[in-house]
Write a structure and sequence with these properties.
Structural class: alpha+beta
Shape: globular
Order of helices and strands: HEEHEE
Largest sheet: 4 strands, antiparallel
Distance between the termini: 26 Å
Number of helices: 2
Strand order of the largest sheet: 2-1-3-4
Radius of gyration: 12 Å
Strand content: 25-35%
Length: 82
């Protein structure tokens, strides 16, 4: 309940995670305003993850904690919609 999803605004944290996981790209799944899930991009694809995010948002996330139905990709220091 402390707006933990703001981690996506920290390129340093995202870069450290990708380096620790040994990957050059990571997908970021917004779970709510309080949480995001980071997934190495070589372990899944954006369209499958987007479907999961959308389903969870419809069934599990309250409207006051909803963040986004998009999946994001962090690569080479840039954050974009996947």
């Amino acid at each position: 309940g402390i707006a933990g999803a703001s981690v996506i605004l920290s390129p340093k944290i995202l870069k450290e995670f990708s380096e620790e996981m040994g990957c050059s790209e990571i997908f970021i799944l917004p779970s709510s305003i309080n949480e995001v899930i980071l997934v190495p991009a070589d372990r899944s694809d954006a369209s499958s993850l987007r479907a999961i995010v959308q389903e969870v948002n419809r069934t599990e996330v309250s409207t006051t904690e909803y963040l986004s139905d998009n999946v994001y990709v962090f690569s080479e220091g840039l954050l974009e919609i996947a």
